[in-house]
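Continuing the batch. This is chain 6 of the set; chains 1 through 5 are on the previous pages. Same settings as before, nothing changed between runs. Recording input and output for traceability.
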Amino acid sequence: MQSPLNHSPVTVIENAQFLTQDRQKPHARAVAIIEGKIVALDAAARQFSHARRIDAGGAIITPGFNDAHAHTVWFGQTLLEIDLSHASSPEDVYESISQALDVEDSNGSEKADTWVISSGFNPNYLEGTDLEIHKLDVVTGGRPLLIKHNSGHAYTVNTKALEIAGVDPHSPQAIEGGEIVTDSEGNATGLLDENAMRVIQDILQPDATSDLVQALERATAHYVSEGLTSVTDAGVAGGWIGHSPREIAAYQEAKLLTRMQLMPTIDVLHDLEGHTSEKTAFGIDTGLRTGFGNDRLQIGPTKIFTDGSLLGTTAAMSEDYQCCSHHGYFQGDVKEMKSQALKAASLGWSLALHAIGDAAVEFAIEVISEATSRYGQPSMPHRIEHGGVVQDSQVKKIAESGIILVPQPRFIREFGDSMAAKIGEVRTNLSYPAKRLLDAGIVLPGSSDRPVANGSPLKVMEAFVLRETETGEIYGADERITAAEALYAYTAGSAFATGWAGKKGQIKPGQLADLVVLGDNPLEVEPNAISDIGILATMVGGELVHGQF
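Output for chain 6:
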């Protein structure tokens, strides 16, 4: 909606309970905003005699929420695809796809050669019963099918899709850093793990820029309805996570309601020639690198995938999984990954290494520590994404090296039981740390990895506090944190992790006027009620982008 705040140079919001996240002044009752920034609090805010004044009616207002790791295009696409997030049996999957195709047929939009695309599928909900490729063939009537797993690390496809991709269903080729899974007779089951997904991506991508714009606009409209004002997109323009070499152009074209920071995947970076007196650069064409942009749209670190996932048992572990006699794998040659990462760091890129297994975490620490030793701390912190299993000794190294670890506690609520079955009780207590990070002096950000898990910030904060699995079991009890710590993580913590400390994430003079009006106080309600709090309004840069006071 159009904000009335745009028509006055000064806006004063008063009669509110501001939870500022500024530890020097944790509370305020009034805020003054000029040109998108907070300029004064309390008495100093009230002194503006010609301001537009808004009576907040005693509402709770916090800084805007900031998700430090999500996937916006991917999430926006899920809003347009067949939703399998509630499928609890193979029959549910077959029926959901069949019903969607029936709707297409009744609308006259079904085409025999077009792909059937679905998302949100969690194979762990099927309790060990796999999808059968021949049944997928039947239900799709000869059309190619793609089922995106919610982990982001696997696809399930039908025979037609394999044939289009040039894969022999009866003798599929080996894939480095991935697997076309086969049955006991050597026939493809339709499951594609990790880098094997690229055989399908190479057909369907690049996506049209107009489609990316539509996905982005749908996604950010949803974001602001949940109080999100800033989001970091953890992997764009390349790799298995990107959608198009022109992906950043879609962000420029889209009407984004949230601030966005983008992580180009490292395979997008390439040598750039310059003056003969300069060494060859390494980056995106025209020399763009970490930090380019503004407070609305900015280039962040480069994203490097080192391993897979716990659910797929493809994360690189130092010891075998509890459920099976292997310890996962790296997604590429570790020497080459390290060389590429150090090359990027030497030329001004911050690094964000996806590392879930403790072997991958150790590798990420080694790479970042060497980068810091050689080239110093970057302007935007180096990061490790996820931390599915992190040893105590590794927490110490992370703290010593000034690394930010970005965990996703909502994974616990949605598939914690499945993760625990994969890694066992001992490693469950080392999984997706939070309290150990804070105790070590490491700044903790808030993040969801949406759409892998529900990205509602209040749901993620609740998961930080409760750490309850889908069946109510406690997952790593010693890693629980307070609601106050969770709120700080999703505001000031994420601002620090993304290089915006002191510029946003707090209700403080000089910082961006990104605010969320809540229906209750997350620090006072019962922990299991945090996710039930309503989002009454969201402001980005002083503009009302959702709801009303």
